[in-house]
Design the sequence.
């Protein structure tokens, strides 16, 4: 049982409010801003689904202070903070400071990994029984989960949003004397050419937000295929 001296593990969603023209620029270049925002909304719904199924404490770290009321409305039981700082590493460090994660295990996720599950997240949490840091790998070299039971080392100098991030983050932690546990890679959605594969991967997922994402993806892929046939 959690006490003042043993607070519950915290799952934090680090995200932006979906809006046309915000994020996912490589996908927007093909899908367009409006449809990309629709995709972002459905990916975010999957991440919020993960927070709702988490049996411990939850929090949302939102990119803009102006979106604090919106973020609070998404999950009223979650603690909500606005990110501050420069790059994503600095914003994660500030998020952890605001949430006072020094004395409890924390797992951080984004809104781009709909293959995440309660089983995967609980496995990451268990890994902190024998390691100071756990990293859920992304297939593109990044990470889908960052977990720690100790303060993070400096994060602002790491190569965020590149394929080198995962290895650099692991090396940074290990160079600071923090044992790292690594978990199997999952898909992290950044490119249009990942969408068809994602639809196949989540086809049997019965969680409501995943079913809606699958429905949207298959509709988009069918429309795209029809457009290509008509243009031949």
Sequence:
């Amino acid at each position: 049982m959690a006490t003042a001296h043993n607070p519950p593990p915290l799952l934090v969603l680090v995200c932006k409010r979906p809006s046309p023209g915000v994020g996912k620029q490589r996908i927007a270049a093909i899908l367009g801003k409006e449809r990309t925002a629709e995709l972002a909304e459905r990916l975010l719904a999957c991440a919020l689904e993960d927070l709702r199924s988490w049996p411990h404490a939850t929090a949302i770290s939102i990119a803009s202070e102006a979106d604090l009321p919106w973020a609070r409305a998404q999950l009223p039981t979650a603690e909500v903070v606005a990110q501050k700082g420069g790059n994503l590493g600095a914003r994660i460090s500030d998020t952890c400071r605001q949430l006072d994660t020094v004395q409890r295990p924390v797992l951080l996720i984004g809104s781009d990994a709909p293959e995440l599950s309660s089983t995967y997240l609980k496995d990451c949490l268990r890994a902190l029984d024998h390691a100071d840091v756990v990293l859920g790998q992304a297939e593109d070299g990044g990470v889908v989960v960052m977990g720690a039971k100790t303060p993070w080392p400096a994060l602002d100098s790491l190569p965020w949003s590149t394929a080198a991030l995962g290895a650099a983050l692991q090396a940074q932690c290990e160079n600071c004397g923090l044992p790292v546990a690594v978990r199997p890679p999952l898909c992290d959605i950044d490119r249009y050419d990942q969408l068809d594969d994602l639809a196949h991967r989540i086809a049997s997922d019965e969680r409501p937000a995943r079913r809606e994402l699958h429905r949207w993806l298959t509709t988009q892929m069918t429309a795209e295929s029809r457009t290509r046939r008509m243009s031949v």
